[in-house]
Batch of 2 targets.
Target 1
Amino acid sequence: MSRRRVQKPRWRRLPLRVRLVAGFAAAMLVVLTGAGAFVYLRVRYALDLRLDQDLAAQSAQLTDAARTGTPLPTVARTVPGEYWQLLDAGNHVLAASPGLPADSLLTPEQLDRALRLPVRADRGTLLPISPRPLRLYAVPVQPGAAPAAGQPAVTVAAVRRDQRDEALRELIAQLALANLAALAIASLVGYRLARAALAPVERYRSEAARIATGATGVRLAVPATDDEIARLGRTLNDMLAAQDAALDRERQFINDASHELRTPLTLLATELELALRRPRTAPELEHTIQNAAADTADLIALADDLLTVGTQPVQDESAHTIDLTALLTDLVDRYRTGAGAQLDVLHCQAEPGLTVRGYATRLGRAVTNLLDNACRYGGPPITVTAHRVDGLVRVTVHDSGTGMDPGFLPHATERFRRADPARTSPGTGLGLSIVDAVVHTHHGELRICSAGVHQRFHPRFDVPCEHPPDGTTVTMLLPAARR
């Protein structure tokens, strides 16, 4: 069953600057709406407070007149915009000012509350516009007492809200216009700011498109600032520089590998062609096959070396904790047995309990290459030492030979690079390259000290260097495994 492709929300497919402006506008809309609501509520409170004060004065006169039996028209004379009603407990109108409808201004629920305590209420709506908007203030004539039938129970003072409602409607219109104008201006400014801020990103994208088409040596134009975009540009330039360097190394590696592979392949092809030109005796064919097998073995060894040089860094999830003390001791013993060396010519001094994280096969290959170089180009005695220093494990291979040429030392780990005295001896020039690659992939550091000259490759640590008086010392600094 095929999986359906998950569609992204439509807004996520919009350009980044549009999404930024939309988010900014939404935030501004919330802020402006909140500010407008606050201003509206404060103004309405002030206007309602003025109306309530007028209603309280009018209601006090009405209530006193109802309690004392004073004729209401005499006490509460009619003022334009002001009204009153006198209600009984059944919500019937006992008396009212002119201009009011015959029914009560209070609903039954409002009357029930007004029989116990004063009630403020509004009649009519702000929007849509009501023909007779009123603000009411109902007060019980005898709070807590049950009024007799037909006797005044509640006085209702009312005042028209036309001016108050008109002021609020004008305020709402002004706030809406002001907020829309502010929102439009803020959105325009936000869009210009977002476009200006993202302009370097667009330039980076166009330069990346050029690089994707094959352009080399391209670098991004980074502004002389220290903001996020400038730091991104510098990081991308560093990445491009590392990419160009990696491509150069790859091309050089391919060229060197092609050159080195051509020689054994040519020898193998020549021997086989000569063997096929005329009939050969069994011993001659056997000799030819032995030579071809030797050339094939050289090709396999060279291919293994090339693969080791291109080894990827150690991944923590696939690495293992290695007992380095046991590994070194076993390697030196096997090498001594295979080479027929004496104990005083090749010996190992490893501190007990040394452990590192990595791959035993790769580290063993590196140590074996150092032993090969020490036996082939150095002089006895050869000493392998290992001890812990500042959270690291220091592994050294020292020989007592004449040492390397100081001019060759900085290039000792380059692929297929060999010193002049070593060109006449067997080898591919990949021994120290493999050691450097293995140490580097184990997050370590390689050092070579020969004839008093010291060289560090891929410096990582501040551990002091060792300077033996003679011979050559190759040092591998590896992070110790956490206990």
Note: The longest strand covers residues 382-389.
Target 2
Amino acid sequence: MRGNSLFRPFLLRRSLNFRPFSSSSSSFTIPPIRTPKTDSSRPENPYPDYVRDHPAFADYLSGYPRSFEPPKFGFEAEIEEPPVPPNVVMVNSDEEFEAALNKTEGESQLGIFYFTNKGCVPCRFIGPVMEELARRNPHVTTYKMDTEAKELAGTVEKLGITTVPTVHFFVDGEKKDEVIGSDVARIVLTTRDLMDG
């Protein structure tokens, strides 16, 4: 055990090629940094003239062709939004709202009035749901209204719309129910109940 401890510093010094500083040597010199040698026989531009004059050479050096477009993946080309169903009608003014309300009264059918606006995040979530609901119930008309439209200010104030999305259900010109917020399950169930009743 003692022999191992005596040889350990010697072996460590030998393996690391370590020389301890003595008290007499107070300074040491740092070797100069070697710079790579340049080959003067090598040309500055190794490409021949016919390559440098080619129009695609600049594209090769830049890494991108001049008509560069980001690559499209297969699934991006395949995804297409389905068209808006014909029974989803945009209402753009107070007069159009009154005409739509009179139509639901005359036909004795369910009319869904969907209030939304472009800056509403829950409306972006519920919008495709409303379109799919209209697609599955072609005999029910969904009237879509933008609450930020100035032409609909009277209707929004008259119905007391303060939150979007808001969905009103009218039968025979009379409001039967309403859903405030993006409660998809309640919208679907209310539609089904009013259609069955």
Note: The helical segments are 2-16, 49-52, 56-62, 74-78, 94-107, 121-136, 153-159, 184-196.
